[in-house]
Amino acid sequence: MPNISDISQEEDELYEHHAFRVDKGQQPLRIDKYLMNFIENATRNKIQAAAKDGSIFVNDEPVKSNYKVKPNDVITVKFEHPPHENLLIAEDIPIDVVYEDDDLLVVNKPAGMVVHPGHGNYSGTLINALIFHFENLPNNSSDRPGLVHRIDKDTSGLLVVAKTEQAMAHLSNQFAKKTSEREYVALVWGNMEDDEGTIEGNIGRHPKNRLQNTVYLDDEADKGKPAITHYKVIERLGYVTLVSCKLETGRTHQIRVHMKHIGHTLFNDERYGGDRILKGTTFTKYKQFVENSFKVLPRQALHAKTLGFQHPTTGEFLKFESEIPQDIAECIEKWRSYSKHKDN
Hints:
Elements: E1 10-11, E2 14-21, E3 29-30, H1 31-36, H2 44-52, E4 56-58, E5 61-62, E6 68-69, E7 74-79, E8 97-100, E9 104-109, H3 126-133, E10 156-162, H4 165-176, E11 181-189, E12 196-200, E13 202-205, E14 213-216, E15 228-236, E16 240-247, H5 254-261, H6 284-296, E17 302-310, E18 317-321, H7 326-343
Parallel strand pairs: 10-17
Antiparallel strand pairs: 1-2, 2-7, 3-6, 4-5, 4-7, 8-9, 9-10, 11-16, 11-17, 12-15, 13-14, 15-16, 17-18
């Protein structure tokens, strides 16, 4: 389902925070339940409070929380203040800078840090940190200072940030033309059948849960954008597999969605169902072992390990690597030990 507008606009002193058009096939559903699937970090109580305050509109008319949505309804959520993500505040947050020159910097982002402000995450992001440490960063096409690409909040690893307009244009072009190099390390559920392979499948918003993306197959390919992931098995660890994933395209949640699509959801990926036991035995000891592994790695097992691109001024191809962080390394070691013990 398309989000008609993510940009605030002033209208009768109200600012638009969200806008959606309801799909043609939508069954009648209370609007508070409907919006919970489409607005990140929104609770039903918050949605009901917004409706009570007259902030939720359907076809430009305010509605109560028990309104039943219908196909083609246009839903807007408006408040008297602009969206927080449009109000960028510089914050003195440390950044792990791997490389820096006059044109760009490469940063190693920790898991848990959001890259740019968005609904529910208005401070503590990489952008809040960047604008504190660096002046006059160029805006990208979404008005986000310095950002050439992004990685998910709970994914760790390397990002390149542009410091000049020329670097922004040059680097963005490399990502668009797929000449940049990006390799991720992932721990996935299940013992992968092939040692290596390529996953192709258009990725788009999930029709019933906007917080997820999904793969659309040939008959529905017009609903998503082309996405290609190349994978290679690094190590087989019994009920999980350590894999290297190289991105040819850079869709939102691409590795997470593609891996789930082929039956190998990322380990402890809560949003895509990897925070449950998907492979293994029914023994209580095994269940306890997996629970302990989740505690060691309380996020999806995904790390942006390698980043390569052509320098926008010198033309030299630069390549950076970052070590697998401690939480993923500890989790891998636990599985390594378990799989050896299991086979004895």
